[in-house]
Amino acid sequence: MFKKLWTRASAIITVFCVATLLSTASNAADKKIGIIVFDGVLSSDITAPMEVFGVASRKSWFDDYEVITINTGVQDVIKTEEGIKLKVDAFLKDRPNVDVLLMPSAYDMDPLLSNKELVDYIRTTAKSAEWMASNCSGAFLLAEAGLLNGRKATTWAGGEGGLQKEYPDVDVQIDQNYVIDGNIITSNGSVVSYQAALALLEKMSSPRKADEVRDALQMSRVWNADLNK
Fold first, then answer.
1. Are 100 and 33 in contact (CB under 8 A)?
2. Is 87 exposed, middle or buried (0-12, 13-18, 19+ CB in 10 A)?
């Protein structure tokens, strides 16, 4: 009798453990960091946050996040301004739900700014997202969606005047690598995209955890070397 009860109890425990493991697996990476992409996007604006958050997502303290690219077009592959071909994960037409949304830039932003579907997606996503972000002239998209009104923000170095002229309700900051106001971060883009992504990661986790990724990417060595010159 005792043997039968023990066998049954063992079976129940086994089922419970398996269910727990499956539940944990299904909950893994249940949050998404979406990065808008398109033909002609400036490479570092997207590859920098992809690398920073990609490294972080392999850490136990950030493994509930995954990075996805969202193509404004319909092709499976986009080609950056610098010639990098990238297979995309999702499409704007499907309006994927994300917890963080980042806008990159292009030399010609007019097609993006006139893309009403994209601007509406940005505006709608901002209502529930934890963070909204931009690199370089991606700030113009946030401004077009009305998200920067009354907020401090920046854009590419040298483009601050244009942002202020086009969107006078934005409190444009000059000579700032990146600016955080509320749950929105804007940056100069290019190599600063790494600095901004790490700053955002710090806000989403902690300074110590962001340092883990900073060290993994050798960024601490770069910054310390510059400071010691």
1. yes
2. exposed
Architecture of domain 28-227: 3-Layer(aba) Sandwich (3.40)
Q: Which residues pair with 77 in a beta bridge?
A: 87
74 pLDDT above the threshold of 50: yes
Q: How far is CA 191 from CA 156, 188, 210, 225, in A?
A: 11, 8, 17, 16
Tally the residues of the chain. Answer: 229
Q: Does residue 19 register a pLDDT over 50?
A: no
Say if CB 64 and CB 130 are below 8 A apart. Answer: no
- Give Cβ neighbours of residue 176 (< 8 Å, ≥ 6 apart): 154, 188
* Domain boundaries of the chain, sorted by first residue: 28-227
pLDDT above 70 as % of the chain: 85
What is the model's pLDDT at position 28?
57
Q: What's the pLDDT score for residue 122?
A: 98
Within 8 A by CB and 6+ apart from 6, the residues are: none
- What's the mean pLDDT in 161-183? 98
